[in-house]
Amino acid sequence: MDRRDFLMLRSGLAGNMAVLSCEQLYMRYVDARADGSDEALFQDLSDDLRSVRSVRLVHTSWLSDADLKRHVDAVLSKFRLNGGRIEH
Questions:
Q1: Structurally, how many domains does the chain consist of?
Q2: Which long-range contacts (CB under 8 A, 24 or more apart) does 71-79 make?
Q3: Rounded distance, CA 80 to CA 10, Å?
Q4: What is the pLDDT of residue 28?
Q5: Could you tell me which of 75, 67, 57, 71 has the C-alpha nearest to residue 21?
Q6: Mean pLDDT, 10 residues at a time, over the chain (88 residues)?
Q7: How does DSSP classify residue 2?
Q8: Which domain holds residue 50?
């Protein structure tokens, strides 16, 4: 499975919306933290979000890890500053 397909499911017209599973993101984060690639994971997520106008977060209870939440909040703040819309 492609990395991007694993993190986000695209829907809507011309990929205008993505669904981000926080559960899947958490699993990827644990793996990335173990091998030291966690910064790259969030850079990839930020890059992926550039191709959509809105993102819907699902399974947000998985953001209970403070470090993961800090990283996700930073990515989503940048997304919002660039005109993106967040749905919960």
A1: 1
A2: 71/29, 71/38, 71/42, 72/22, 72/25, 72/42, 74/42, 75/42, 75/45, 75/46, 75/49, 78/46, 79/46, 79/49, 79/55
A3: 18
A4: 93
A5: 57
A6: 50 69 93 94 92 92 96 97 93
A7: -
A8: 3-87
